[in-house]
Design goal:
Layout lengths: L9 H25 L8 E5 L4 H12 L3 E5 L6 H11 L3 E4 L5 H11 L2 E4 L2
Parallel strand pairs: 1-2, 1-3, 3-4
């Protein structure tokens, strides 16, 4: 019999979260300098399908001191996603996986905001 592990350990999540967190620190510090040093008020969209990378990215955003706005971008076209992210007033979006890279890229381009990848 083949057994498939359905759970994720905290250690596995931490291994994925750590490099994302360090990458976000620099980006958010740069944004804070531009926006008058208001790091605590940064809103970062976490885009992708829900899974290990999404959870690690979400945790990294929260750990970096920003407000995380989790969005399964596969559910929206570019116009809908643009409206959703505009309403959430996100400063930055992090793509946790490539499931909706084109749609996310187009939405952030329309908003004039930065899109980065978690890897």
């Amino acid at each position: 019999l083949s057994r498939r592990c359905l759970g994720t350990t905290a250690a596995q999540l931490r291994l994925r979260e750590e490099p994302i967190f360090h990458g976000l620190q620099g980006r958010l510090a740069g944004q804070a300098a531009i926006n008058g040093n208001r790091l605590a008020h940064h809103r970062v969209a976490v885009l992708g399908s829900h899974g290990l990378d999404f959870a690690a990215t979400f945790r990294a955003v929260r750990r970096a001191g920003a407000v995380a706005a989790p969005v399964d971008a596969r559910l929206y076209d570019a116009e809908e996603l643009t409206a959703l992210l505009a309403e959430a007033q996100v400063h930055l979006a992090v793509l946790a996986d490539n499931t909706a890279a084109d749609t996310a890229g187009e939405a952030m381009r329309r908003l004039g905001k930065q899109l980065t990848f978690s890897e």
